[in-house]
Amino acid sequence: MSEMALTPISSPITGEMQVPGDKSISHRSIILGALANGTTTITQFLTSEDTRRTIEAFRQMGTLIEENETSLIIHGKGTSSLLEPEEPIYFGNSGTTARLMLGVLAGLPFFTSAYGDPHLTRRPMDRVVKPLSTMGGHFDGRNNGNYLPLAIRGGNLQGIHYRLPVKSAQVKSAVLLGGLFATGTTEVIEETPSRNHTENMLRAFGADITANGHSIQVSSDKSLTAADVAVPGDISSAAFFMVAAAIVPGSELTLRRVGLNHSRTGIMDVLSSMGTEIHITNKQTTGGEPLGDITIRQRPLNGTVIEGDMIPRLIDEIPVLALAATQADGETKIRDAEELRLKETDRIKATADELNRIGASIRPTDDGMVINGTSVLTGGRTITYNDHRMAMMLAIASLIAEETLVIDDISPIAISYPDFFQHLRRITHS
Ligand SMILES: O=C(O)C1=C[C@@H](OP(=O)(O)O)[C@@H](O)[C@H](O)C1
Ligand SMILES: C=C(OP(=O)(O)O)C(=O)O
Questions:
Q1: Which ligand places an atom closest to the C-alpha of 315?
Q2: Do residues 165 and 16 both lie within one domain?
Q3: Which residue CA neighbors atom 11 of ligand 1 most closely?
């Protein structure tokens, strides 16, 4: 446990910064690079606890991965070169590693066992185990294979047509990755669009993939070919600084080279509907992913409603958006976000409990919360529940608190943003 006491700031947030590479795209670039033939160079790769788990999983299966200051180089030799790991694979705290790797392991013709940290061990895996078992993968584990640790015997998959029962890019991706090993076509139908990085990147790596409206189809007809990846900045990491600039009076902040994929930009739409001034400049596209510079200017905030198709477009940003809503005039309602209860911690409960502890007025509901603004945040002791996004949200709350805010444990921040506090200090000039 690593406690930190944070004092409020007295001046606006100004300047510019660049956030680290996107976590979702970094995971996928390792996976596709390792399954492909040839050398994949990944620049602006996110080096963090979660992405390390995906790197180590492939190293255990024999993939040569070189790491240096600015890039990650994957020497892919195709799926048939991957070896049965001698030791269990450790997924750590990373839901993305777990769900996507289960899709890959279901396709590989050998035995693997896998486990996670105590938090990941409580997160449901049946959402991927069920469709991957229907495809022919063999899984065993507690509660009929719903929880890690899991034993996996892969190989001989058949394609399926699968309608997603949950709004989850991880489930969609696991089934599509399984589809790379399956006979026939694998189709995933998703009612509510979720992040589409797997589809974009499979295309860039030469897979046989089509996406039409709600249906995505993949087959094993074409093997993957290495493709270099320049990872855009992570909008989910940028979100903390966007909200900081939106709530600290007089702030103006520019975030450079942030990923602007429509399936991820819900935070910008919501903050601007709440009144924040947002401008985008220097738009460009790399590897099928749009990016650009985002400038945020603080303006008075009003409450809003966040629901429906918007939810997957900002799912990881809800704790910090809830913080913004505590500073908005009137009520903010968040609905259809039941998936938040299944993250690193129950983020509905954790967000309401911790913000209420320091003076907010939030009523948790089954699938979201109702936030009444405007609240004065007092400071005091807070708990992160080993959740990186809770820890960073509370650090941003400390900027506007009346007194010192103590965070019980900042170590989880290394899961997605090891340099968070250096970056925060730079823009708060402290
Ligand atoms: O596919 C991904 O990279 C992710 C998908 C989302 O999870 P779900 O698929 O569980 O919604 C998100 O919360 C997670 O941080 C990353
Ligand atoms: C939910 C998250 O990640 P994961 O599911 O990969 O643990 C997150 O980063 O907020």
A1: 1
A2: no
A3: 168
246 lies in the same domain as 226: no
Give the per-residue pLDDT at 44.
96
* Residue 342 lies in domain: 4-21+232-428
Ligand-binding annotation for 168, yes or no, is: yes
Query: Does the Cβ of 170 fall within 6 Å of ligand 1?
Result: yes
Task: Select from 215, 230, 245 the last residue of a domain.
Answer: 230
Number of H helices and number of E strands within the chain? 13, 23
Helix, strand and coil content of the chain, in percent to the nearest 5, comes to: 40, 30, 35
Tell me what pLDDT residue 69 has: 83
Cα gap 365→360, rounded to integer Å: 16
At 332, list the tokens. Answer: 């903010």
Residue ranges, the chain, pLDDT below 50: none
The DSSP line for 120-161 is GGGS--HHHHHHHHHTT-EEEEHHHHTEEEEEEE----B--E
Looking at residue 136, its pLDDT comes to 98
- pLDDT value of position 93: 98
**From the alpha carbon of 169, which atom of ligand 1 is closest?**
9
> Does the N-terminal peptide bond of residue 149 adopt cis geometry, omega within 30 degrees of 0?
yes
CATH of the domain at 298: 3.65.10.10
Question: Binding residue per annotation — 223?
Answer: no
Number of domains in the chain: 2
Q: Is 130 annotated as a binding residue?
A: no
Calculate how far, in angstroms, residue 412's C-alpha sits from the geometric centre of ligand 1: 17
**39/184 same-domain check:** yes
pLDDT at residue number 1: 82
Q: Considering 230, 252, 277, which residue would you say is the last residue of a domain?
A: 230
Task: Please tell me whether residues 16 and 29 are part of one structural domain.
Answer: no
Indicate whether residue 416 lines ligand 2 (CB < 6 A). Answer: yes
Do 255 and 206 lie in one domain? The reply is no
Distance CA 304, CA 326 (A): 11
Output the pLDDT for position 429. 86
Q: Which ligand ends up closest to the CA of 177?
A: 1
Query: Which position among 293, 316, 387, 409 bears the catalytic label?
Result: 316
The rounded Å distance from CA 14 to ligand 1 centre is 31
44 shares its domain with 182 = yes
ipTM of the complex: 0.99
The reported pLDDT for the residue numbered 10 is: 84
